[in-house]
Amino acid sequence: MKWIIIAWDQIRLNKKISIILVVFITMSIFLIGVISFYNNIFSYSQKQCEQVLTGTIDNIGLLYVENGDFYSQKAQDFINEAMDKKVVKFIGSISSLETDRLPELARLQGNEQGNLTWIWADQTVLGLCNLEFYKKAEMTDINKNVYHLYLGYNFKKVKVGTQYVVKQEDGKDDVYVVDGILKKHQNFISGEIASGAAAGTTVAVYNMDNRVLVFGDVYPSSGFWIYESYKNPDNMKSELKKLADKNGIQIQLSSLNSYLKNAQIENEKIRMIFSRMFGVILIGTIIINLSMCALSFIVNKKQYGVLYICGFSEKDLVIIYIMENLLKSFIALIIAGAGIYVMFTRLFVNNYETYQMIQNIFFAHIIKILVEEMLILVLILSILPVILIKKYSPQMIVKEGGL
Predict the structure, then answer these.
(1) Where are the domains of the chain?
(2) Cα–chain-centroid distance for residue 294?
(3) Mean pLDDT value across the chain
(4) On the CB side of 333, how many CA atoms lie within 13 Å of its CA?
(5) Residues 255/225, Cβ–Cβ less than 8 Å
(6) What is the C-alpha separation between 46 and 56, in angstroms, rounded?
(7) pLDDT at residue 251 above 80?
(8) Comparing C-alpha atoms, which of 121, 318, 324 is closest to residue 220?
């Protein structure tokens, strides 16, 4: 404890120098934290895909029909021809939208506007993702105007078997049957990967805690088909484009593998920029800190002479210097860590998946990396003071300090 008190006293005596050093150390730790985020985003997304999908990510992706009806005759002809020619195998379809169709469920979440995020899907898609259930009943055959719901964990108070009836404009009733409640933190494949988005701010799966899976024979007009490729990516894309042109539709497609590769490339570019900034600031931090340490040592010889006279040894002075750098770095760690967390969570607070990703990466990886970097900086920044202390004998310090 006495080392901390003495080190803190040294920081107070050299307040201006200490503030400058803390600023540079904070910038170094902040940048390495940002770089570490981009290092972890790619592996995090890949791990998510591998955990969610029952199959390999190498040949699975999504296909989207642009500016057209998802279930138009042209689109259906395109799908059938692609499957007949064994270009791809279409596993099923999904679509995400907000709806006010069942406000009773939305209000269970505290959403007074009555909007729910629904994932519409074919029943066959269930075999693609590893979903675990908190409660479940056997899903009956899907009929027209009867929809089957798998609710996220936040709806766990709803009883399995509950039915909701919605009156349509044509006088017919749509019936929604709750067939299951998903376990907490279950994920489902995201439609975002088909948009070609490659930045690390998007994720490849949806968290289902606040969402509803809907199965039925009528779907929204826009959505995505999940496909599995029979051929290598280049041949598959070329043949699908030809078939799309032939049937008069425009398509957009992306494989999970290419999505992750594109994300990795984008993250590499961003990481390179921050790495260069970090290199410049780190060198500046070391040079300034070493210079300040040398200056502080020369200016404050009288203080160290007093410490020698009071019975402190050479080893004690080394410990005091190291503790001084440790305190400065710890202050910088708190400031930088808080800055990184606030910056990323504030940027993506409206995107639940990305917000969860930021939380998981920060607490599972970034904190550990920042602490390790802080300790390395402490060691580097303590080299020169130790050399100076070793160079000057106690007698020289007492004499030059005017004692």
Answers:
(1) 2-49+261-400, 88-229
(2) 42
(3) 76
(4) 19
(5) no
(6) 11
(7) yes
(8) 121
